[in-house]
Design a protein that fits this description.
The protein is α/β, with parallel strands linked by helices and 480 residues long. It is built from 16 helices and 21 strands. A hairpin with a 5-residue loop joins strand 14 and strand 15.
Length: 480
């Protein structure tokens, strides 16, 4: 597999130092990758600009552009098992998660947005001027920097690539330095299916490469998924040329378990929603508000279910949870768990690193958590769950206020059989997605993004088409 940069249709050596990506289950080096420097970023942006202005891409028939995306989906599907294995080795997630949630969803996103290409339309507007026709066009934003995280490297990349290309933009991809291998593979497949040179470019490296893209005057839009801290830095960096931004940032999703809920279903759904990808999910359920009357039952079943999970190498059959992504992140999770015990939370299960090799951390449940504790407020991004209780006689408004008492607002869930309670809670919770009696599963047709510090804008569905296009109004006077 190439570990170079991809610029203007060519694989080229990077001018920066080489870095390694490590299998988090074994701590063995998976690949050595060339890191871009400023000159490489400049070249990639220039190539994307040239391709954007080239009639070969700019004036390509929509059917042809759609066919390229369909071909890319077919090419990815043909190598899905290999790519899933690569992703598991790079991230650590169980192979089933890689194959179905990560690669499978990527294939569906490519096909979904391939279908959109021939359906991007404008409209006519009944304006007040006589003898004048007004219509709108949706035109591509231009050169788009796509900066992606390490937790679902391919899937989140495709969330951005598919609508960006469907709408006629050109792109520069910067994957997370911890997990760049599947992005390299996707670009190899795109090259094979025939995207014109310069339409897709790839620069690898650490945060300095991402910063170079966000500050670059040749970049018209940045689509970023990652931490809120970095998101704020991107907002500041984008001010130079007023870049368009889509930011999908952190989360601290609450889960409300009502007195009338099916506790068995709530336990199963919340364990899945909290521990998928070892809790390294921005929408992971992390704060569980349980009615006091059901707390004992919920805790007994919840802790038992968590203790029954199998922690191991994602390539091994039967693995439920893989390792955390890196030694650095393992240390971050350990520190927050220790803070939880120091602040008085009751450790019910887990709480420590396990295994002689690999970055494995036991799934961890705390009881007796208060809203002001660090583990209830700070995004942990690991398999750490906090159980809080509430009195049933409390007004729903007070419970919603507790759920909303966070800087974040990406996702939330409510477990209840009472449709009135469900709707009132969903209406009151400040989050971009509220799930009723189900884990946090995105879909290509539904908007994805957050309120407050969880980001700006929306991905997926028609909302991504809006995010990667600019509306243009055309005025035509025909009275002469």
């Amino acid at each position: 597999m190439a570990t170079q940069l991809f610029i203007d249709g060519e694989w080229v050596d990077a001018h920066g130092a080489t870095f390694t990506t490590v299998n988090p289950a074994t701590e063995e080096v998976l690949a050595e990758v060339g890191a871009a420097d400023q000159s490489d970023v400049d070249a990639a942006v220039a190539a994307a600009r040239g391709a954007f202005e080239n009639p070969t891409w700019r004036e390509m028939n929509p059917v042809e552009r759609a066919n390229l995306l369909f071909k890319l989906a077919d090419a990815l599907e043909a190598e899905a098992d290999e790519v899933a294995r690569i992703e598991t080795q790079d991230v650590g997630q169980p192979l089933g998660v890689s194959r179905n949630a990560n690669i499978g969803t990527s294939i569906e996103h490519l096909r979904y947005y391939a279908g959109w290409v021939t359906k991007i339309t404008g409209e006519t507007n009944p304006i007040s001027f006589p003898d004048t026709l007004h219509y709108t066009r949706r035109e591509p934003v231009g050169v788009c920097a796509l900066i992606t995280p390490w937790n679902f490297p391919l899937m989140i990349l495709v969330w951005k690539v598919a609508p960006a290309l469907a709408t006629g933009n050109t792109i520069v991809i910067k994957p997370a330095e911890q997990t760049p291998v599947s992005a390299i593979k996707l670009v190899e497949l795109a090259e094979k299916v025939g995207f014109p040179p310069g339409v897709i470019n790839l620069v690898n490296g650490d945060g300095t490469v991402g910063a170079a893209l966000t500050e670059h005057d040749g970049v018209d839009k940045v689509s970023f998924t990652g931490s809120t801290e970095v998101g704020r830095a991107i907002v500041r960096a984008s001010a130079g040329n007023l870049k368009r931004l889509t930011l999908e940032l952190g989360g601290k999703a609450p889960s409300i378990i009502a007195r009338d809920s099916d506790v068995d279903a709530a336990v199963a759904g919340n364990i899945g929603g909290a521990t998928l990808n070892t809790g390294q999910v921005c929408a992971a359920y992390t704060r569980f508000y349980v009615d006091k009357a059901r707390e004992e039952e919920f805790l007994e079943k919840f802790v038992g279910g968590v203790q029954g999970l199998t922690l191991g190498n994602g390539l091994e059959p039967g693995t439920d949870l893989g390792p955390l992504v890196s030694a650095e992140h393992l240390s971050h999770v350990e520190d927050l768990v220790n803070t939880g015990t120091q602040q008085g939370a009751e450790l019910l299960t887990g709480g420590k690193r396990t295994g002689q090799k690999g970055y494995f951390f036991e799934p961890t449940v705390f009881g007796g958590v208060r809203d002001d504790m660090t583990i209830a407020r700070q995004e942990i991004f690991g398999p750490v769950m906090s159980v809080l209780s509430y009195e049933d006689e409390d007004e729903l408004a007070a419970l919603i206020a507790r759920a909303n008492d966070t800087p974040y607002g990406l996702a939330a869930t409510v477990w209840t059989k009472d449709i009135k309670f469900a709707h009132r809670a969903a209406n009151g919770i400040r989050a971009g997605a509220v799930y009723i009696n189900m884990p946090p599963i995105p879909d290509q047709a539904a908007p994805w993004g957050g309120f407050k510090a969880s980001g700006w804008g929306r991905e997926m569905g028609k909302y991504a088409i809006d995010a990667f296009t600019e509306p243009k109004g055309v005025w035509m006077h025909y009275g002469y």
